Amino acid sequence: MNDILKVAGLTRSFTQGGETIEVLRGVDLTVAPGEIVALLGPSGSGKSTLLQAVGLLEGGFDGSIRIAGEEAARLDNDGRTRLRRDALGFVYQFHHLLPDFNATENVVLPQVIRGADMASAQARAQLLLSSLGLGHRLDHRPSQLSGGEQQRMAVARALANRPALVLADEPTGNLDERTADVVLAEFLRLVRGEGSAALVATHNERLAAKMDRVVQLQEGRLVSP
Ligand SMILES: Nc1ncnc2c1ncn2[C@@H]1O[C@H](COP(=O)(O)OP(=O)(O)OP(=O)(O)O)[C@@H](O)[C@H]1O
């Protein structure tokens, strides 16, 4: 009833060069508050397409997406922007950090945009960054940080506004295996500590097994492996 995410009958196809590919063929998925779900599937199976739909980043879908009880299809552009800002956090494979701002500022900005005052936004940014081991890198810009450090910064930014649901697309996909393990463990610890739910796309079964539940995209539908 109070699921943070409920997707029902979601379909999406792309037409290119006269050929239509049905990427999502009726996806059903429910995520409970605080639950961390791994979205497993090989390259090209539609994981990013599904996350973009749930992230309200793209149109062109049929079916129902309810986030925190709100049906996305019934919202206009402003409503979707508000829901995205209030309920969702995003972690991408390639960080999408603001290159001209330092670590603190990258985590402060989304909070200030949402109306937080500067002092509390800064305190929370420092708390999140420190709990990810970046307490000594607060004034560094993304280009002055390693790949693992940049991804920790992206995790802190995604959690800045205490989202009920974090969407992560291959969050450790461009890190070496050891760093990926460490950053994923920190991500999971922080998400659990914050009580957020998460939907985490990965093609890595070993990493998926560390989450609360695994769902697998197969031929456009979700199955339990
Ligand atoms: N804008 C688009 N136009 C045409 N085809 C697209 C578009 N976006 C995605 N596709 C196709 O949809 C399929 C699924 O892509 P998607 O990026 O969702 O897969 P994925 O599982 O996230 O893959 P990866 O792990 O490689 O990122 C692919 O075959 C892709 O070519």
TrEMBL record:
Gene Ontology cellular-component annotations: membrane protein complex; plasma membrane
UniProt keyword Lipid metabolism present: no
Q: Which keywords, in A-to-Z order, does the entry hold?
A: ATP-binding, Cell inner membrane, Cell membrane, Hydrolase, Lipoprotein, Membrane, Nucleotide-binding, Transport
Q: Where is the ABC transporter domain?
A: 5-225
Q: Report the InterPro entries cross-referenced here.
A: AAA+_ATPase (IPR003593), ABC_transporter-like_ATP-bd (IPR003439), ABC_transporter-like_CS (IPR017871), ABC_transpr_LolD-like (IPR015854), MacB-like_ATP-bd (IPR017911), P-loop_NTPase (IPR027417)
Instruction: Identify a single GO molecular function assigned to this protein.
Output: ATP binding
* GO term, biological process aspect, one: lipoprotein localization to outer membrane
Say if the entry is tagged with keyword Membrane. yes
Q: Which domain of life is it from?
A: Bacteria
Q: Which family does it belong to?
A: Belongs to the ABC transporter superfamily. Macrolide exporter (TC 3.A.1.122) family.
- Recorded protein name is Lipoprotein-releasing system ATP-binding protein
- State the species of origin: Sphingobium fontiphilum
